[in-house]
């Protein structure tokens, strides 16, 4: 559903209520990752050797982190695109199309 479709079907008040509800009772992938982290940490702690690892595992130890430590510059992004292009057998057409860009 697009944002326009959403706004056409529910009122601003109802949307605000859903947003408030999501803060109280989160759902979705982030919540699913937390539930999986709880199960994994309980299992890991059941088999943890306290002599080798003194602190117990926490759910966050088993949850994926999608936050980047440093933002990528355009140069890094271009390098990734070049590598993917080569890996997929693509051709670099920038030089051939350079005249189109400068006109």
Short characterization:
This protein is mainly α and 103 residues long.
The SSE string, one letter per element, is HHHHH
The domain count comes to: 1
Largest sheet: none
Question: What form results from the Cα inertia axes?
Answer: flat
Put simply, the count of helices is 5
- Cα(first) to Cα(last) distance is 40 Å
Structural class: mainly alpha
Number of strands: 0
Average the pLDDT over all residues and give the rounded result: 88
Q: What is the rounded Rg?
A: 24 Å
Strand content: under 5%
What portion of residues is helical?
55-70%
Q: Spans with pLDDT under 50 lasting ≥5 residues?
A: none
How would you sum up this structure, described in words?
By secondary structure, the chain is mainly alpha-helical. It has one domain. The protein is built from 5 helices and no strands. The protein is flat, with a radius of gyration of 24 Å. The mean pLDDT is 88.
Topology:
Blueprint: H1 3-9, H2 12-24, H3 29-46, H4 74-87, H5 98-102
Main traits of this protein?
103 residues, mainly alpha, flat, single chain
């Amino acid at each position: 559903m697009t944002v326009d479709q959403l706004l056409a079907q529910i009122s601003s008040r109802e949307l605000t209520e859903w947003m408030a509800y999501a803060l109280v009772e989160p759902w979705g992938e982030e919540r699913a990752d937390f539930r999986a982290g709880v199960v994994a940490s309980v299992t890991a702690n059941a088999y943890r050797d306290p002599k080798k690892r003194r602190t117990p595992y926490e759910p966050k130890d088993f949850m994926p982190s999608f936050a980047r430590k440093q933002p990528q510059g355009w140069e890094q992004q271009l390098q990734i695109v070049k590598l993917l292009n080569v890996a997929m057998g693509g051709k670099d057409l920038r030089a051939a199309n350079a005249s189109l860009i400068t006109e």
